[in-house]
Amino acid sequence: MHLPPPVHGASVVGQNIQNSKYINSTFYSRYINLSASSKVEEVGSLSIKKLLFLISNWIHCISAIIRFKPTLCYITPTSDGWGFYRDFLLVQSIKLFDVKIVMHFHNKASKQWVERGINRWLLKHFFKNVKIILLGKELYEEKSSFISENDVFFCPNGVPSVNDKILKTNKKIDKTRFLFLSNMMESKGVLILLDACKELYRRGYDFRCDFVGGWKDVTEELFQNRIKKYNLQDKVYAHGPKYGDEKKMFFENADVFVFPTYYHGECFPLVLLEAMDYGLPCLSTVNGAIPSLIDDGLTGFTVPQNDLNALVLKMIWSIENPEKMIELGVFGKEKFESYFTLEQFEKNLTSIFQECIKS
Questions:
Q1: Per-residue model confidence (pLDDT) at position 172
Q2: Other residues' Cβ atoms within 10 Å of the Cβ of residue 359
Q3: Structural domains in the chain plus CATH codes
């Protein structure tokens, strides 16, 4: 599995599994870190350092299988690119030892990559005689040509609940506070959200929008220049990355969480689970398994990717219906506690492992 660093969805889930008392008391497990990158910027790139890591990691994995003789091998592979070829080699090598394999996908492949003839051939063999775990049913279509749904488990991720406060269902909202929290990447929806704020300001709405996250392809200079261009200095604020109590403060002070991502690899953003834990209604996009997270109109809203007008209209509705948004946040918190806690994830994953072993 992938473990931090770098910190991203798959590595956070991997660390939660490695540290799980529930899973480790049920199974006798050994863990090997598949992360070849030490920074988020390095993910998806190829280098001599990574090639050397690939060779040593392959030797480590095969040696562990020979010595440990596992009943079940759990792997978190990459869906496309050079990472898939690396994982293809590892999975096909493990199959030689007649070990049951379950693969847990935290990413998805691009359609163009899947449609290439050589990749389709490799995928056909990759998914032969294995079970897989997907984060939501929306993600099965991509893999439906290569593996039967009978060999697929659906298991949503879970995160530790950090908000033990009773939700204030009668709080008064004078000015709606929107919160974006993720890496400051254009494909995560940073600039389209900024354009939406421009439109809200043009229409005379009073609001505040906080952006929290590390600077990536959207640089601080670019962002601040656009704020000045749009005259949003009193409406929009960028705070850089925040952790611990500082991060918690932003969730507690927000009214609506906005995440208009169109990132091609988006599957199941953990930040949406964090927002639901704080009782925030979520406004995001139809991307990956996000529709499994957000019940449209009940716990928040989903809009088409890159649809500025749809995003603006839902943000306006949020401003004009503060009581309804509080209600949506309460339903979101209830859904989080029922399906998306770390404890529920550990139980679901344990059941899947047990079923894979019996099959």
A1: 67
A2: 11
A3: 9-158+341-358 (3.40.50), 176-339 (3.40.50.2000)
